[in-house]
Design a protein that fits this description.
Shape: elongated
Distance between the termini: 53 Å
Structural class: alpha/beta
Number of strands: 19
Strand order of the largest sheet: 15-16-17-13-18-19
């Protein structure tokens, strides 16, 4: 801190040395009383002052740069007396021409400044010197008085080492100059000061307007001039009074009506429009502007949110009208087609009856011949059509059909209005419904055998095979799955069942490549190749057990967003609408398509409908492999039937479906193609067609009683609740071994006891697996802690590997690019924020109240440049903006984890969230300043304060992102409250170099410095010492305003990068 005070002293040396050369080489002032020569002498002295100010200013500009941005400009504002040099002329006459003998030399000014800054900040006394000490104390040593060197003596005003003897002709200091106590020389007052001769106040004994008193024992001593120029706290009486302006240092005028005059100003300032200022106004009252800003901002936000909500509602109604009209038209067309078909069939039957009657009359009727003839005729007609098509295609090389297909694709892509798109979608849906009636009893194998339309898109088929799949927890060495072998084929629905703890969810996680903290052995083959399932994640759908959907979006918006981001980018919008409409129709969500899904706080659709939306999010991306974790849990029988019918429709298109089911009804059970039955310990009991499961278990003496649901009975047997019949010697522990024997699988060695029991009833040789590893030896307490730490590290390594390292894409599906997904996310987040307008409004109201409270309670003051108010501002704005920014990511972690795992871009999601938050970043500083600025009315401009607050809000928003991602909601809120307070206390602490170094890494220090610099630049002239003192005390640099803003922005960008990196790493297991 002392080094900074020395730099401040260097600035003041320059300020005070400026007049020190008034009489250098100009000692002949004998013509001072000649009116013709006096202006010449005055101008000569002023020119020398200007030259010296310029030269000395550039020499010490490096040392004083922390508080002087432009030396020539700042010193010109402090000592440019060119407009009125009358006080110099008056002083020449008052001193009878020896003004040069009374001015302070460089050594005296250095002595004054050293004492001013090294001494107590409240003291106005100087140390003893050559002229004023304990043995010699003349009248010139008293405040407001000065002496002369003497007639005929030369003085070197530039001498910085020796204080000259100055004890002759002591008299009162000239107006416009100040004479410190303990020095016998004069220093000119800077502009913005009022330095008249004082007058004795007989009541108080003080020389008004100053604070010193006359010395005792000197009856001839009178009140002199000003006595000290320091910061405003020690020399406020020298500053031009509030409500007055001082064009020179010896003149003070009251502020006129319609103007205001700040403390220490040289001219009156006109009041702004719509603001009334009376006479002697010290500042303008801009509360009206604050009210206008609040009204304008409130009106803008109300119009924006209301109109946006109305726009969303109007757009939804228009879409609903177009959709309903298209649906009616498609239904009418389908009904007309059915009527035409029925009429055609009726006409055919009537013609057949007439033919039979005619033949009967002519005795030529033979029913068998007529039937055979009719069938031959029909077959020949169909055969003729097929042969003709094949002939035509062979004739032109298939170009005709290709052209037709291209023409149809082009027509679909040309559908650019909602009416045409919906008409196309519902027309296709009606055709598909008609086809479903014909294909109601067909399986996927039957569908493959039928001729298909070449225009229909075909999904890639995925077959998943697994052999000796074993899943073991790394921490406890416990098997979750063991020796699981089998396959899942396309076009079939496989149900995974078993008692609790059988590893059903673990089995699905292993298939989906989502296992963390487990060691996996065995093989998982995709279409017969040892590829990672993550290479097919763009065509793999995974429905989690929890209903993870966006509650502040409608059902259609949830499904439509998933379709846009996950369907092929080249697919036309009409085809995407068709996919979404097909899923909505198949899941029975037509009635709630425009309803919000709802959250815990806000009621939405029912639980069963929410479960179907959860499944629909994966169905709209047209997967080839669909894995569902308990999709029917919580659903009634009707909803479960509806869901299974929709999945059955998907399986007919070749989708490989595997799902965990708990206690399905018999009708639901019969809809499954395959059954995977797991026992405790993750062992397979049965894997095959669901309809053959009863026969398999009956072969082992386990029969299903009458009126008992087969899957319930099987699970009860595996739980040990139901005992097998006395005729059967098979226990539930032996069932996994029997399955291995049945399929010829290798049996692990630790299951030999069950194998021996099974061998007593089954002949054959059992292949034994490798010997077991020896049991883990008892570990010490330290060993257990070390093992837990290793396991924890391995789990995090697995998470990083799973989330950061991507596999080669083998799905042959090109989804939308990051930029396209960014646009989709941007639209979705905008809708969500518009629907949460009430929460945004509450945030703004709290900011308004905070600005009013801080502005009313903060004691700014000109001496500290409003540091207290700005400190409270940093805490309040940081705290409120951080807590509000937490909602951007903390409330949607589960949704993002699901979307990211499905292949959506995390970068697009993050950038869209941040982009929408830029609206709050731009508006919140205006909201806060509309109250704070009007209450405090600082000298810095509104724009300067807005820019600093803008950077501050951007900075703390980035920090909030990181807190929201790395911590849970409660902990993140606690950190958001503590961080601004703690960091601000560190930043404002004035202690050792270590504490200042630590403060350099805190954002409140750079924000406070930017505020103080923006304000200090508005203080010049007589405020120069106050400015330098305040900046030196806080170790601020006036040239660092742009640097402070850049550092705040850099911190914001840095923490956004940290938050995004954490988003990639800390995904859900």
């Amino acid at each position: 801190m002392m080094r900074m005070w020395e730099l401040s002293r260097a600035v003041i040396v320059l300020c005070c040395l400026a007049p020190a050369v008034f009489s250098q080489d100009t000692n002949d002032y004998s013509q001072f009383d000649n009116p013709a020569t006096l202006p010449i002498l005055t101008q000569l002295v002023y020119n020398k002052v200007t030259n010296l100010t310029t030269n000395l200013g550039y020499e010490i500009s490096n040392q004083s740069s922390f508080c002087v941005r432009n030396p020539s400009e700042d010193f010109n504002k402090a000592f440019n007396y060119s407009s009125n040099m009358g006080f110099i002329s008056n002083c020449i006459q008052q001193t009878q021409g020896d003004i040069g003998q009374r001015l302070c030399t460089a050594a005296e000014m250095k002595f004054y400044l050293n004492d001013l800054f090294q001494g107590s900040q409240s003291s106005t006394y100087l140390k003893p010197n050559r002229n004023c000490n304990l043995s010699t104390w003349i009248s010139g040593c008293e405040p407001g008085w000065a002496c002369s060197i003497g007639i005929g003596q030369q003085v070197d005003l530039a001498d910085v080492n020796d204080v000259p003897p100055r004890i002759d002709k002591c008299q009162a200091c000239c107006p416009g100059f100040f004479c410190p106590r303990g020095l016998t020389c004069m220093i000119p007052c800077p502009l913005g000061a009022y330095c008249p001769l004082s007058t004795l106040n007989s009541t108080t004994g003080i020389c008004d307007p100053y604070t010193y008193q006359l010395p005792q024992g000197r009856p001839n001593h009178t009140c002199g001039g000003a006595d000290i120029w320091a910061d405003v706290g020690r020399s406020s009486e020298m500053f031009c009074s509030s409500g007055f302006h001082c064009p020179t240092t010896t003149e003070e005028y009251a502020c006129n009506s319609g103007h205001y005059c700040l403390l220490g100003t040289t001219s009156e300032q006109p009041c702004s429009r719509f603001v009334s200022c009376g006479a002697n106004s010290a500042n303008q009252n801009i509360e009206r502007y604050g009210i206008l800003i609040i009204v304008a901002l409130s009106t803008f936000l109300l119009v924006l949110y209301n109109c946006s909500d109305q726009f969303l509602a109007l757009r939804a109604r228009r879409l609903a009208k177009s959709r309903e009209a298209a649906a009616r038209r498609a239904q009418e067309t389908a009904k007309a087609r059915e009527r035409w078909k029925a009429a055609n069939d009726s006409l055919g039957r009537h013609a057949n009856r007439l033919s039979r009657r005619y033949l009967q009359r002519t005795n030529l009727y033979d029913p068998m011949q007529i039937e055979i003839t009719s069938q031959d005729s029909s077959k020949s007609s169909v055969t003729h059509e097929i042969e003709q098509d094949e002939f035509d295609e062979a004739k032109d090389g298939g170009s005709s059909n290709k052209k037709k297909r291209k023409e149809k694709v082009r027509k679909v892509k040309d559908l650019n209005t909602n009416t045409l798109i919906f008409h196309y979608a519902y027309e296709q849906l009606e055709k598909e419904k008609a086809q479903e009636i014909d294909n109601v009893n067909l399986s996927f194998d039957g569908m493959v055998g039928k001729p298909v339309n070449s225009d229909v898109r075909k999904r890639p088929l995925i077959e998943v095979s697994f052999k000796d799949l074993t899943l073991t927890l790394k921490a406890k060495k416990k098997h979750l799955l063991r020796c699981v072998t089998g396959s899942l084929k396309p076009g079939r629905i496989a149900a995974v069942m078993g008692p609790s703890g059988a590893g059903k969810t673990s089995f699905l996680s292993a298939l989906a490549g989502k296992t963390v903290g487990c060691s996996t052995t065995g093989l998982i083959l995709i279409n017969g190749k040892q590829d990672s399932i993550r290479s097919y994640k763009k065509v793999t759908g995974f429905v989690p057990q929890d209903d993870i959907v966006h509650g502040n979006l409608t059902v259609e918006e949830n499904l439509w967003f998933s379709a846009k981001c996950r369907l092929p980018a080249k697919m036309s919008r009409a085809d995407k609408v068709l996919v979404v409409e097909r899923v909505i129709d198949s899941l029975g969500l037509q009635g709630v398509r425009d309803s919000l899904v709802g959250t815990v706080e806000k009621r939405g659709i029912s639980g069963g409908q929410r479960k179907r939306v959860n499944v629909g999010l994966e169905m709209v991306m047209e997967p080839s492999l669909l894995i569902l974790d308990e999709p029917t849990s919580g659903l009634d029988s009707a909803s479960s039937q509806l869901l299974l019918k929709a999945l059955r429709h998907e399986s007919l298109e070749g989708v490989n479906i595997c799902m965990v089911v708990h206690q399905p009804s018999y009708s639901l059970y019969m809809m499954f193609d395959d059954l995977i039955l797991l026992a405790k310990g993750g062992l397979i009991v049965y894997l095959g067609p669901a309809r053959r499961a009863e026969d398999y278990f009956a072969g082992h003496g386990i029969t299903v009683p009458d009126h008992v649901n087969p899957p319930d009975h099987f699970i009860d047997v595996l739980e040990g609740i139901v005992k097998t019949s006395t005729s059967s010697s098979v226990g539930f522990k032996e069932l996994p071994v029997l399955w291995m024997i049945h399929n010829g699988y290798t049996i692990p060695k630790d299951m030999r006891d069950e194998a021996k029991a099974a061998l007593s009833n089954h002949e054959g040789v059992i292949g034994l697996g490798p010997p077991l590893r020896p049991g883990a030896e008892a570990q010490s307490f330290v060993g257990e802690i070390w093992q837990d730490m290793r396991t924890h590290v391995q789990i995090h390594q697995d998470k990083i590997r799973l989330n950061l390292f991507t596999s080669k894409d083998l799905s042959n599906r090109r989804t939308p690019s990051i930029f396209q997904q960014y646009k989709y996310f941007l639209g979705r987040v905008s809708k969500q924020r518009l629907r949460d307008a009430r929460i945004q409004a509450v945030d703004y109201v709290i900011l308004l109240l905070a600005g009013a409270c801080v502005g009313a309670l903060a004691m700014g003051g000109d001496q500290s440049f409003g540091a207290a108010g700005y400190t409270y501002t940093i805490i309040a704005v940081s705290l409120l903006c951080q807590i509000a920014a937490l909602r951007s990511f903390s409330q949607e972690k589960l949704q993002h984890w699901r979307e990211s795992a499905s292949g959506m871009s995390s970068l697009a999601y993050f950038l869209a969230k941040d982009t929408i938050d830029h609206f709050n970043t731009a508006i919140k500083p205006v909201v806060y300043l509309s109250m704070f600025y009007t209450f405090t009315n600082p000298r810095s401009t509104f724009v300067d304060n807005y820019i600093v607050l803008l950077c501050l809000v951007y900075c703390v928003t980035g920090i909030a992102y990181a807190l929201a991602i790395f911590f849970e909601a409660g902990a993140a809120q606690l950190w958001s409250v503590l961080l601004p307070v703690i960091l601000t206390l560190i930043a404002t602490r004035r202690g050792s170099n270590i504490s200042r170094t630590i403060a350099t890494f805190t954002y409140p220090r750079w924000a406070l410095q930017a505020f103080i610099i923006a304000t200090s630049e508005r203080y010049d002239g007589v405020w120069l010492i106050t400015r330098c003192g305040a900046l030196a005390t806080n170790n601020f640099d006036i040239k660092n305003w742009g640097t402070c803003l850049c550092i705040l922005m850099f911190i914001g960008v840095l923490f956004r990068g940290i938050a995004f990196f954490g988003m990639l790493i800390f995904l859900k297991k």
